[in-house]
Amino acid sequence: MMESREFKLSFFQKHGEKIKNTIVIIILLVISLPIILSYLWLVLNSFASEMKYGIIPTKFTLEHWRFLIESVKGYPNIWQVTLNTFIVAIMVMFLELFITSFAGYALSRYKFRGRKTMLLTILVLHSFPSVSLLVAVYYVLRTLNLINSLWGIILLKVALEIPWGAWIMKGFYDQLPWEIEWAGTVDGYSRIQVFFKVMLPLVRPGMAVTAIFGFLSGWSEFIFINTFILNQQTWTLSRYIKGVIGDFRFVDYGLLTSISLFYMIPTLVFYFFANKYLLQVNITGTKG
Amino acid sequence: MARILLKNLSKHFKNVKAVDNINLEIKDGEFTVLLGPSGCGKTTTLLMIAGIYKPTTGGIYFDDQIMNNVPPKDRGIGMVFQSYALYPHMTLYDNIAFPLRAQKMKKDEIDRLVREVTKNLDIGKLLDRKPFQISGGQQQRVAIARALVKKPKILLFDEPLSNLDAALRSYMRAEIKKLQNDLGITTVYVTHDQLEAMTMADRIAVFSMGKIQQYDTADNIYNYPANVFVATFVGTPAMNILNVEVKNYNGDFYLQDEGFKFKTLPQRKEILSNLVEKKLKLGIRPEHIRLSLKETENSIPAEVYVLEPLGREVIYNIKIGNNILKVLTEERMDLKPGDRIFMDFDRNRYHLFDAETGKAIDISIR
């Protein structure tokens, strides 16, 4: 019988994995500290009436949240603004979802001339800053008589979000094997029936992702609203916050932080329900 | 039930001729296997029969009716895919009922048919589950049930067993054959596995390079291969192929190359006399070669190269001249690599092929 001998390991060999992990966590913490601190400040400030050194709260108050009950002087009713924001976000989400569900399928399944060019242009288009479009868009909206209208904003947002959404949906359709689609046609359905009965249910995670992105991009839209919405009654929350900061008067930090938190709630709720779908996003290259 | 006829059928993908002018008739109720290596056009042919691919030229007929432009849903076919292609978001019951719902059938009628088809396939208890909750073998049977439930005129299989383990594959081979036998549905079955083809098919169409090399019963394909490709593709271990020339020495005809010469039977004199000095390929099946330790009449010396024991049989690899031949036998001989040995083969059972075209030369004695 051979006697088994223990292999001698150095301290680092024994604990290497733990040390490495600790170092990584510390580095990540330091990098994200500014973000963590600023959110912390936001929460503390909205519930405190006095802050020591600008960060340590001394007195609890709900005073800053009074805007939920009564209109703040000089600003429109918060619920009207919230409703506007929801209308924009939800309409952008639905229209984008509707169009990209079809567009993504076509980009994934059909070979047509210029498909590759289209896929590449889509990405370039998406990286265009919307500020650079403002002047041209102004003329378009004026011609269509959509200045000062939420519909103008919605159509604009949808148009700008479609390329990105179509690209994401294409990635999800790409993962479905042809055989499943073929099986559907052999089983007695036309291609369009197979699309609705088999393909769409299978890209549900993709639709969830596109919906989230659509909703959030509508929810957080600022530049177009700031430029094309002049009427206070058609403001959305981002414009409202801008109003609180930007007017020539004393900035009410309590109000600002509370409204900012209020503005964040839907986003947080959305992420909470959707993060499992977001992890599935797979933006595939141009295949075939 | 239906007869399938493929007439001058071709399918081109850009510049590639995936299927190149094939003709094939599959009789009503027949089990036909399309056999060939990957990329030979067999699956493309199947997908054209299914209506998923449109032929570039030529015609597909079911019972004398041209089907070229009929969409898959109206062809009356059932199909089993390599990946099974079950609908992941539906229960097994819904998967199997899916083709029936397309026909707007009544609920209790659907239920009756689903129960009927699943009874024999041993999946009746699993119907509430989703495809990812069952094993590969069960998924396979659900796929078969889905193909059968609408009572198709034609059944198509695309390499249905290649994702199963060996034991299950052997079991399902027999099951599918039994099923087809009982139902008598015209069946086209694509595979690259010659064992599946040999064991299941009424007739086999051997494909290579987009063309049908031979279309015949398993026995005829094995015993009378039409060319070198079929001869070497069908059978394990593959047929041994040697380059030879026919020589006439004093009225006796020999098959000869550097390092060996085989004397032929006098009955073939007439046939072989036409082939003298022609470049040929000699094909001998591994099981038709005999080995012995002592020299006998007509045997030639060889050297043991390597042994491959299979349990019941042994494959002896032997070297004559520059050629390595495989010999399959149940006989155990105490041999090791490098040993001298003598080989002989059954002079009634060999094949000659034209070295240029690869086509078989008829050497049968009448």
Chart the SSEs and their pairings.
The complex is a heterodimer of chains A (about 290) and B (about 375).
Chain A: H1 11-47, E1 48-52, E2 56-60, H2 78-109, H3 115-126, H4 134-143, H5 150-174, H6 178-186, H7 191-202, H8 204-219, H9 223-228, H10 237-246, H11 253-278
Antiparallel strand pairs in A: 1-2
Chain B: E1 4-13, E2 16-26, E3 31-35, H1 42-50, E4 57-62, E5 65-66, E6 77-80, H2 92-102, H3 107-121, H4 136-148, E7 154-158, H5 166-183, E8 186-191, H6 194-200, E9 203-208, E10 211-216, H7 218-223, H8 228-233, E11 240-249, E12 252-257, E13 260-263, H9 269-273, E14 279-284, E15 289-292, E16 300-309, E17 314-320, E18 323-329, E19 340-345, E20 351-354, E21 360-361
Parallel strand pairs in B: 3-8, 3-9, 6-7, 7-8
Antiparallel strand pairs in B: 1-2, 1-4, 4-5, 9-10, 11-12, 11-14, 12-13, 14-20, 15-19, 16-17, 16-19, 17-18, 20-21
Helix pairs in contact in B: 2-3, 2-4, 3-4
Number of strands of chain A: 2
The description of the largest β-sheet of chain B is: 6 strands, mixed
User: How are the strands of the biggest sheet of chain A laid out side by side?
Assistant: 1-2
CATH architectural group of the largest domain in chain A: Orthogonal Bundle
Poorly predicted residue ranges of chain A: 283-288
User: What is the alpha-carbon Rg of chain A in Å?
Assistant: 25 Å
Elements of chain B, N to C (H/E): EEEHEEEHHHEHEHEEHHEEEHEEEEEEEE
SS element count, helices of chain A: 11
Radius of gyration of chain B: 25 Å
Residue-averaged pLDDT of chain A: 84
The gross shape of chain A turns out to be flat
The beta-strand count of chain B equals 21
Largest beta-sheet details of chain A:
2 strands, antiparallel
